[in-house]
Amino acid sequence: MDFILGEPKRWHPLIGFGKLVDWLEIRLHYAKNTTAQFFLGTLAWVLLVIPLTIITYLLEDYLGWWFSILVGYLAIGAKSLKDHALQVADALQQSDLNLARQKVSYIVSRDTSELDEENISRSTIESVLENGSDAIFSALFWFLMAGAPGVLLYRLSNTLDAMWGYRNEKYEYFGKFSARIDDILNWIPARLTALTYTLVGNSHRAWACWQQQARHWYSPNAGVVMAAGAGALDVQLGGIARYHGKNKIRPTLGTKKAPNKNDINRAWLLVFKGMLLWAVITLLIGLLIK
């Protein structure tokens, strides 16, 4: 359904959820005391996630399998990720750096105005690998484990982490609970994603990079995904990136080979082959259970 229909052009539930998040943040993110900020951020997560998860559980029980599939379809963003990544690659193929910088700014949070071709390619590949975990494999994992309410709880939590999970003055304490919940929910799926990249890519390099480099990354889940993905593609990721006017020194991951515009499509194909692998495994499990 995702590959045929893509994301809904209008009225996507996650966009509506984002507006609800903004509305509630205005009303709860006011405290100066850090303990109060943490408490209010936790309360905000509970108010935003738990009622919708309960409603989804009740609707799934009442409406049946077709409702589960609908929620699962809305929670997975594979076609959107592919389209955004390949738009960057197409702009680079046309040697249009300004267009490529504009397109990559839609899928990364770093400053893109001065990126060259290599760093545009690197940024896009990193986004494909990390969003392959967050928006595809983790969503599939929770859909398989707990149906519609499970994937909804995961996707809403992941959205809150994306909006509030920053280690800065504004969100350090208010967004801490959302960030920790997302870390917990992603712990197993991230490692399954890393294993997936290892199996469908350059397995030897992926495994070596995963074991040797992942622990140096600042995120315990993104580290395993990015390290395994970089090794699977035989490229170098990480390094210096500019966020909000300041350079962030990040560990290097993968090999010594600089990424280029052709590696963007290779990154997407790595994710796509992983999806096919999951589909085959899921089908076999389903047949064995029957």
Plain-language structure description:
A two-stranded antiparallel ribbon has the order 1-4. A two-stranded antiparallel ribbon has the order 2-3. The chain starts with a helix and ends with a helix. The model has no long low-confidence stretch (mean pLDDT about 95). Helix 8 (about 175-200) packs across helix 11 (about 260-290). About 75% of the residues lie in helices and about 5% in strands. The protein has about 290 residues and is mostly helical. It has one domain (about 1-290).
How many distinct helices? 11
Tell me the major beta sheet. 2 strands, antiparallel
- Structural class of the secondary elements? mainly alpha
The level of helicity is over 70%
Strand proportion:
under 5%
Mean pLDDT: 95
Low-confidence stretches: none
The total strand number stands at 4
**Strand arrangement in the largest pleated sheet:** 1-4
Number of domains: 1
The N- to C-terminal Cα distance equals 24 Å
Order of helices and strands: HHHHHHHHHHEEEEH
Shape descriptor: globular
Radius of gyration, taken over Cα atoms and rounded to an integer in Å? 19 Å
What descriptive keywords fit this protein?
290 residues; mainly alpha; two-stranded antiparallel sheet
Annotate the secondary structure layout.
Elements: H1 2-5, H2 13-28, H3 34-63, H4 65-75, H5 78-93, H6 97-104, H7 117-164, H8 176-200, H9 203-213, H10 220-233, E1 236-238, E2 241-243, E3 246-248, E4 252-254, H11 261-289
Antiparallel strand pairs: 1-4, 2-3
Short description:
The protein has 290 residues and is mainly alpha-helical. The protein is 73% helix and 4% strand.
